[in-house]
């Protein structure tokens, strides 16, 4: 599907400022990366749409990657997520 040898998504892709094009201190999420990749852009060939069944499979595969990334984040950040919930609960009780 990607005959130009595109690298694809990597967790180390840094976001860029839209005006200056300089890298920011944030990384691109898989959801943002794939949203940009499937977006139909003016002046670009719509080659993904021409693959039909593979196009559908591509969406399914990318959705699975995005969900895996979200679940891994939740799994790896449990202590922080629980602490945030506890702080909001404490604020609600204190009112």
The best one-word shape is elongated
Which structural class should the secondary elements be placed in? Answer: mainly alpha
**Total number of strands:** 2
**Count of helices?**
3
- Mean pLDDT equals 80
Oligomer: single chain
User: What is the percent of helical residues?
Assistant: 40-55%
Largest β-sheet summary: 2 strands, antiparallel
Gap from first CA to last CA:
56 Å
User: Structurally, how many domains make up the residues?
Assistant: 1
Uncertain residue ranges: none
Strand fraction = 5-15%
Please state how the strands of the largest beta sheet are arranged side by side: 1-2
User: What is the radius of gyration?
Assistant: 19 Å
Domain Helitron helicase-like: 33-94
Organism: Parnassius mnemosyne
Pfam families: Helitron_like_N (PF14214)
Protein name: Helitron helicase-like domain-containing protein
Write a structural description:
Helices cover 53% and strands 8% of the residues. The chain has three helices and two strands. 1% of the residues are buried.
What are the main properties of this structure?
single chain; 95 residues; Helitron_helicase-like; Helitron helicase-like domain-containing protein
In short:
This protein is mainly alpha-helical and 95 residues long.
Itemize the secondary structure elements and their pairings.
Blueprint: E1 14-16, E2 23-27, H1 30-38, H2 53-76, H3 78-94
Antiparallel strand pairs: 1-2
């Amino acid at each position: 599907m990607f005959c130009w040898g595109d690298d694809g998504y990597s967790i180390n892709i840094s976001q860029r400022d839209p005006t200056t094009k300089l890298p920011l201190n944030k990384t691109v999420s898989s959801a943002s990366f794939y949203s940009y990749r499937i977006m139909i852009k003016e002046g670009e060939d719509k080659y993904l749409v021409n693959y039909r069944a593979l196009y559908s499979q591509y969406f399914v595969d990318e959705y699975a990657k995005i969900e895996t990334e979200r679940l891994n984040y939740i799994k790896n950040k449990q202590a922080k997520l629980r602490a945030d919930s506890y702080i909001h609960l404490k604020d609600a009780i204190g009112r």
